[in-house]
Write a structure and sequence with these properties.
The structure holds three protein chains of three kinds. Chain B is mainly α. Chain B has helices spanning 5-39, 53-80, 83-115, 123-144, 148-179, 195-238, 242-247. The B-C interface holds B 78, 130, 133-134, 136-138, 140-141, 144-145, 149-150, 153-158, 160-162, 164-165, 168-169, 171-173, 175-176, 179-180 and C 148-149, 151-153, 155-156, 159, 162, 165-166, 168-170, 172-173, 176-177, 180, 186, 190, 195, 198, 202, 209, 213, 216-217, 220-221, 223.
Chain lengths: 51, 252, 223
Amino acid sequence: MTNPHWGFILAAYLVTTLVIGGMGLKILFDYRGLKRELQRMVGTSPDRDEA
Amino acid sequence: MPNIANPTIFLSLVRRVLPWVTALTVALLLVGVYLIFFIAPPDYQQGESVKIMYLHVPAAWLSLFIYIVMSAAALGTLVWRHPLADAAQKAAAPLGAAFTFVCLATGSLWGKPMWGTWWVWDARLTSVLVLFLIYLALIALWEAIEEPGRAARAAAIMTLVGAVNLPIIKFSVDWWNTLHQPASVFRVGGPAIAASMLLPLLVMALAATLLFLTLHMMAIRNEILRRRLRRLTILAAEQSDAPAYAAAEPAR
Amino acid sequence: MGGALAAQFRRELKIARRSGGGASTGAVFFLVLAAIFPFAVGPDLNLLARIGPAILWIAVLLSTLLGLDRLFQADYEDGSLDVMLTGEMPLELIVLVKCAAHWLTTALPLVFVAPLFGLALAQDGAALVRVTLSLLVGTPALTLIGAIGAAATVSLRRGGLLIAVLVLPLTIPVLIFGVSAAGAGLADPVRFAAPFAILCALSLAALAGAPFAVAAALRYGGE
């Protein structure tokens, strides 16, 4: 782009992607870890609709 | 012993709904980005930098929306003692902080080329900064109290007190800002919006809202699982089942 | 009821005076804070005169906040809190009495010391009066709002910094109008009355609302 401000635009989209994407990944990894721990303790998947 | 029936129903609901919401979010984001980079015109005054607006404005909208959601969940905790409300509260705080941070950062990156400064202590920016600090404070509170129910109730009260205070803060910062007039006057609001810009903006706003809902659902699910894990860990320890206790993670 | 409240009040005062460390340490902290500003900012009296009210207000704010974990800590630890929770006297009234005693022993001394230090910050007579009045009227709001944070974190051992983090954003309006009333050196100073009136309103609102929030936090925090 010939636009002189493309650096700022790029930085803005980058920051947004990193922060929100980072949050999403953190939530995802957290989920996997929790599922693993629960399976270890209970022996079945915690997502099943069991009492 | 809290009633866990609803959280279980919630988990199965999430399992069914999440793929669709995620797909819809991604679709809307793609449409939005396409509109921004291939359809939306550069601004008459600001040129291409206005493209940052499509991030900044939805983020600002969400930073407030998330606080409202968190406050509603706080009411749920205090009035109905609903463990799902506890989870919804706790899950919302980091998301609120994240979107508020994005709002501030994109605002700075928009402000520097446009108005020549990374930051200015005008009423709107300052209020958003205070909102960011309130989110961070709530996160600190959630981290500090170990027992989930007690943490939820303490956070609920602070959240609601904060909610009452937000308009007061906004008003007082307005007052403060009109006292200390800056040397130059910035038009932080930006230009009046044209239709060709309005559509991408609305699409991005909708996409961002769905994105929050997606992440929020996932985070609530995590909190429910975390609470279960904690309960099971404590039970295992109480049963003085030495191998299980030794193998268990510390209660979160 | 009146007799019981008065007794509670006297008890709080006695405890505050006896523990000593809290109230007087807070006053010393205030002085230290106010003193290091000139070191950081430079001895230029004009500059200090301009930002003097702000320095005093920030020092009072921080001293008050950091002393707040003492409000409920001892009661929580020795079981008195449970007695208050299950007793006949309305918890909100007990909270009010405790906050009043805390304000008298912790914040009020600062209000009197502040103008003395204001002289060191090149404040003139009128400014000193304004600062003192603004602190007098604004510090109850600080104590009451701070009590909410103290109550929410009562179960934590070293909650002082967390209380400050929780409460500071909420006290920004008090700070803004407090400094404004104290006459923060503007080119043309705002009249005293308007910000002072709003400051009074903030303290009154805190007086009306905070005890309920504090009581709720104490009740929910204990279970």
